[in-house]
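User: Please predict structures.

Assistant: First:
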Amino acid sequence: MPHPLLADNPGETHLLLGNEAIVRGAVEAGIQVVTCYPGTPSSEAPDTFFRLSPEGKYYFEYSVNEKVALEVGGGATLAGALTLTTMKHVGVNVAADPLMTLCYTGAPGGFVLLSADDPGCHSSQNEQDNRIYARLGGMPVFEPSTAQEAKDMTRDALAMSKKHEAPVMLRTTTRVNHLRGPVEFGNAPDPGKAKGFTKNPSRFVPIPAFSRRMHLELLDRLDALREEAEKSPYNTVSGAGEIGIAASGISRAYLCDALENAGLKGKVKVFDLGMSYPLPETMALDFMKGLKKLLVVEELEPVLENELRVLAQKNSLDIEIFGKNLLPQNGEFTVTMVENAVREVAGEQAVTVDCCEGRDNLPMRPPNLCAGCPHRGAFFATREVFGDDAIYSSDIGCYTLGLLPPLSCADFLLCMGSSVSAGGGAALAAGQTVVAFIGDSTFFHSGLSGLANAVFNQHDLLLVILDNYTTAMTGHQPNPGVHHTVLGENPSRVDIAKSCEGVGVEVIRKVNPLNRKKTVAALEELKDMKGVRVLIAEEPCPLYARRITRQSKPQVAYVTENCSGRYECLEKLACPAIYKDGDKAAVNELLCSGCMLCLQICPNIKAKKRG
């Protein structure tokens, strides 16, 4: 029997994660090609495609970065394949170059970009609103608010893209990606084969003479897509009265609960925008006529608010519009927040919600590197050699947590891959020692080009490549350098050391970062050198090792009775497996991975074999 997400089982209802619902929607559309670069909150969508790929009738790949993922997906749709490319919101920054051109050439096979935005910065360096990218490129936008809509909109966005040969954005947010809800399934047809590429250089080769015409064709497509928005079942008007509320995305779910709580359901007019761009202007005008007040509910930027303001002004509507003057332009909304905005517009008193008693007295729980994480050993040794004398250039990954004391190995960070190039820039400008850290997945994502630049421009930089054999931060997805995946060994592994040699690095050392003496010795040697040099710190992520290779260290460190109580192991390593037990340090045997790094810090701690 095929997996339920792949089976042709119309009418069945399953409880799905929002990201899983997106997978099912793509299957129902007849998806043929899926590409991605993993990133929270999008990761479960491509991970599900990956797990199902042995029995799925589609091609799937983890690309090395988002630009490559979009280019592979773009090439596939140009060759007639129905294609989905997934990434988190900041990944669209990386993919923006080919994306803007794909909007000009169009997508003959159909193409949907899943952009998973992250209001509140739960797992991101910013909370940008990618609806603005859609408007920049000229892409229709679907914004689901439930698991059912995530499935249905994915299916319908792919169908619309194929019909109009136009790239479409499926814009989700963290709450949509990670909610769970009932999803009724439709048919799952056999996708068949892609129709193949039809040569047409004047359409697909955007030299200036062709691009000028392509832009006009893009504008014509947007007009046709606006007509689709006017009749879309995802755009509805309900309720009555002189107060109106327009909402898109997850804000529609908050609004539904807010109106119920305020007793205003049906007493105000509500404009639900599931297909939020192009704005259905005729529908919007009909909605706004007769209103005295309008509240626009949308997370992050006032995109919809500004469009409705312009539309009202152009049509001389006498209407007072509220939006970001009542609701924040940052972070996630809550039902209470939306309810109070609704109440203020309606002239009613705000409500307060009592928090759990004692909540403010709860201890803080900052993120920390896992027990046994090899990055801890690399950071500890680096601090031992360089202390505060070096500038530490960091990157995107688990190892970004090295910024916290006592490790304190992150002084600045720009984006994925920037530790190498930004580190080189800091070194040449400040004339100070710079140690840059980058993970194996991030190295292949965009660090390799920065390293080539550093070699070419003769930067003075020590690059520490933290190779834990996986893309640990987003869920252990494979990258070109991994040895194993959940589907078995990687037959096409790209060697990191040889890649460094290939771009001209002459000084390369390898260590196991959990071996303190050898790691310190290697760093001492590299410290005395100049130019670009690389230290590769190789040791699997312990979670990955248990999950993929089924290997674990049998030893568990424990504190003997003669512990001096100086707590050096805890204070220097900040390992979550070590804790204070009265006047002694102790080790939680359930958390301890047996890395034995603490034994190399404090001689009072010994190892004990556990069966």
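Second:
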Amino acid sequence: MKSKTLLAAVSIVAISAVAAHARPSISVVGNGKVDSDYIVSVFPDKNAYVEADTDRAVKDIFATGAFTDVKVDNRGSKVVVTVVETPVVVNVAFNGNKRLKDEQLDAASGLNSGMPFDPARLSEVSDRIVKAYAATGRRDTKVTPIVVNRDGGFYDVSFDIDEGDRSTSEIWFEGNESFSAALLQSVMATKSTGLLSKLFSRDVVDAGKMELDRQRIADFYRSKGFADVVVSEAEIDFDPGGKKAMAGFRIKEGPRYSISSVSIDNTTGVPFDRLQPLKDLEGKYYDPAKVARGADQIRRTFNGLVDVTPKTDRLPNGVMDISYALDKAQKVYVERIDIVGNDFTKDYVIRREFDLSEGDLFDPSLVREAERRLNRLGFFDSVRITTTKGSAEDRVVVRVEVVERKTGEFSIGGAYSTADGPMAIIGLSQSNFMGTGRAFSASVGQGTETGNYDLSFTEPYIFGNRLSATAQVFRRDYDNRKGGFRPYDETVDGAKFTLKGPITTNTDLGVYYSFTSSSKSDIDADVAGSLVSGKDHVVSALGYDWSYSDLDDEKNPSNGLKVTFGQQVAGLGGDAQFVKSEASARVYRELSERHEIVGSIAVRGGQVAGVGQDLDFSDHFRTAGELVRGFENGGIGPRDATTGYLLGGQYYAGASAEAIYPIPVLSDGLGIKGSIFADLGTVWGTDSGAVSSSGAKALYDNASIRSSVGTGVVWDSPLGLFKANFALPLSKEDGDRTQVFSISGGTRF
């Protein structure tokens, strides 16, 4: 504030020098930067010396911030004003900084050009710079301020910085008898030093983030039935040289409760006959979030006209009874919503995820739903919403605390798969552009077998509601693949426009229009002509995708169900006319909590049929290798008897069972997990009209089941998704193409 006042005062000088008239009875001594006429103009236009007026003038001069001392000496007919000007910082520079940019250090130091210079504050400014480096894991940074006097009260200040080495961290737990240290660390944002945690600065120990981690650990325990768990504040120690941080928590788990019974205590006088869905909680471990969702269900049943308070009754032997107390609602209103921690994300991006605002009737279920939505945005490492009493009994203050994560990425790297070979990738993406919630991405990938070019933009909130709009354009280049899958070079250009929004809490619906144009060249002679046309193939289609998900974690689920269904209708111009339908479902269950084993069962299928014309072979289903692992891309399905060309089918179906488990040592440091699986599936039903008109002879055109068992490694890392599978086919057809080992993955750096 002082710096702004000082600059304002100095900027006035040019004007005041002209505007002020000479005052021979007042002289100014000691000024260099501020013109004498400006100082004289502050004094009252009187011949006589009046002490009260002079005191007021001195205060006005001090208020400019341009002076550290002002003295007025009355010498009869002459008044002498002696001033001491405030020294000013002209230039601020940083030397030796590589890890933090000048702009970051400017913000951290709080010292800018034009500010008053106070040598006593240089130590404080240096400490701020040291703290900024400590936040990046460099705790032995040394900062030396250097001052250069340019005369006239002007100074240049520079800081010589020795950034030092990055410290390591070690996270420990005491009292965690029910869960491993690796599992508890997976809940935390702060990690022990490892290959990835160090690369992405996830191993930086910070007191504020450790408090959020403490809350995460406590919430995790409570979700597993440990209602009385106590997690201590983080104990943080550093070695004398700042090279290593040791931080940990002491945990008192307490008993683990399972729910014995669920009942209703209804004092409203209005009957409630929907207890049965709440009975699903019985026999399961106590989870306050699930109990709270039960309360939300009751509130919705009564249209918010009742207050619902879950009450717990702890019984011996780890048993708990739940009673929902129903009372007539006491109207409480939202006084205000406070948001903290969003240094980048705009306030309105967070506020629009709430279905209530200041002045609205307070509804706890809407607060919990807002918290869920904010977590799903992907903009924050953590979201915590709390409520406190407002200025009156019927007022409540909602406080939203967020910890932001980086949402922008410039990437140069590569990818590899046994299907498409190596590929170099360069990309630019931002999922929270300028803090507005908008997203864009652009990428170019070029490999020995394929080329990918993508550009997309998403507006997340249109027409004043939670409806997102995405526009995407792309190109795919494919080289000739021998073996009948793609015996030609192909270029596919396309665009897709999608509108997507929520229907219910767990259900989403997206509608889209897509346009693709594929051109083929260098077609193998044995399939050219009737099987594969050299003409461009244009598909113009409308479609929709419906999905339901109640997964506990979208990225790494351990419990829940996800179901998808979509249809596409082609024929709005173009060359293709068909209706395509696809559906999938996968359910997850935690098989062993102690050993962190998660099992899943999945089913999926699809059907496509031509409308008024034969179905082109390229519009048939030609499944990827993951339908039945152990087979190549397009390794199963009907083929032409003469050429071996993969005709594809109008139908496909598949099922799989899989168990994912942590790999000791690797899971702790890198998050690599192992899997065992069994797959089965088939592709069948080539369009008979297309077969007849092309002269093809379809082999293996039946619903014969292919199956396999295997083991794999999965690494869902910040660098990309890596998969490696070893699969042994158990049943197959003679014309199938097997692939015992497959690997796919991408990396960006």
